[in-house]
Amino acid sequence: MQKKGKALFKLAFVPTLLFGCDLQEASAPFTQLAPTPMPKESYEKPPEEPLESGSLIIKPANMTSFYDHPGEAGYLAMGEDYGFDSLSFVITETHPHGGPPLHTHSSEEAHVLLKGTIEYIVDGERFTATAPYIARVPAGAQHTFINAGSSPVNLIGVFSTNNPGFEPIGPNPLVPRPQSK
């Protein structure tokens, strides 16, 4: 399938390429970002601390926090708020069977995963990718994902604009729903 090859770039050397570290360092446990216990409702909250003027480091406390029920917590840095001309970022902690709602963005997006397995839907195409990899989501594509593994993962999303927008389409069709009795 030609489209799959274009949507996903699987690179065995992603940790070295992106971070100058070796694969052994990349196998460290995930970074906990989610509140405990996990919330029962989705939310979005403003940064806990303002970013110091001229700072070159942006910490989670300086970013908007969010939770998508069930199982995905994270931080969003809209580039326009942090001095970026053409970049924005999201960092998540995604638990097994958790993920965002089906949605679109006005810009393209890249997902970087160093450890774990994610199942995607991108413009109706369903596929699974095992880390390390970079996944490409075209601008305007309806997309979502879930953590298809058995442990939480950290996913980094990079957007090619300082304001990618977020347009929810509906619930995540990959998230298992309780059976009605």
Topology:
Blueprint: H1 2-7, E1 8-9, H2 14-19, H3 23-26, E2 43-45, E3 64-68, E4 72-77, E5 88-94, E6 102-104, E7 109-113, E8 117-122, E9 125-130, E10 133-137, E11 143-147, E12 153-159, E13 167-170
Antiparallel strand pairs: 1-10, 2-3, 3-4, 4-5, 5-12, 6-13, 7-10, 7-12, 8-9, 8-11
What does this structure look like?
There is one protein chain. The chain has a domain at 1-26 and 76-164: Sandwich (Jelly Rolls). It has an 8-stranded antiparallel sheet with strand order 1-10-7-12-5-4-3-2. Strands 9-8-11 form a 3-stranded antiparallel sheet, with no helix packed on it. It has a two-stranded antiparallel sheet with strand order 6-13. It has helices at residues 2-7, 14-19, 23-26, and strands at residues 8-9, 43-45, 64-68, 72-77, 88-94, 102-104, 109-113, 117-122, 125-130, 133-137, 143-147, 153-159, 167-170. It has 3 helices and 13 strands, in the order αβααββββββββββββ. The chain is 9% helix and 35% strand.
Any descriptors?
181 residues, mainly beta, Jelly Rolls, eight-stranded antiparallel beta sheet, three-stranded antiparallel beta sheet, 3 helices, 13 strands, globular
* Share in helix: under 10%
**CATH topology-level name of the domain at 1-26 and 76-164:** Jelly Rolls
Q: What is the topology, as strand order, of the major beta sheet? A: 1-10-7-12-5-4-3-2
What's the SSE pattern? HEHHEEEEEEEEEEEE
Chain oligomer state:
single chain
| Count of alpha and pi helical runs | 3
CATH architecture of the domain at 1-26 and 76-164: Sandwich
Can you tell me the CATH class of the domain at 1-26 and 76-164?
A: Mainly Beta
Report the mean per-residue pLDDT as an integer: 86
Q: In percent terms, what proportion of residues is strand?
A: 35-45%
Taking all Cα atoms into account, the compactness measure Rg is: 16 Å
Ranges where pLDDT stays below 50 over 5 or more residues in a row are 1-26
The CATH homologous superfamily of the domain at 1-26 and 76-164 corresponds to: Jelly Rolls
Give the N-to-C terminal Cα separation: 39 Å
What structural class do helix, strand and pairing data support? mainly beta
The coarse silhouette is globular
Largest sheet: 8 strands, antiparallel
How many distinct beta strands?
13
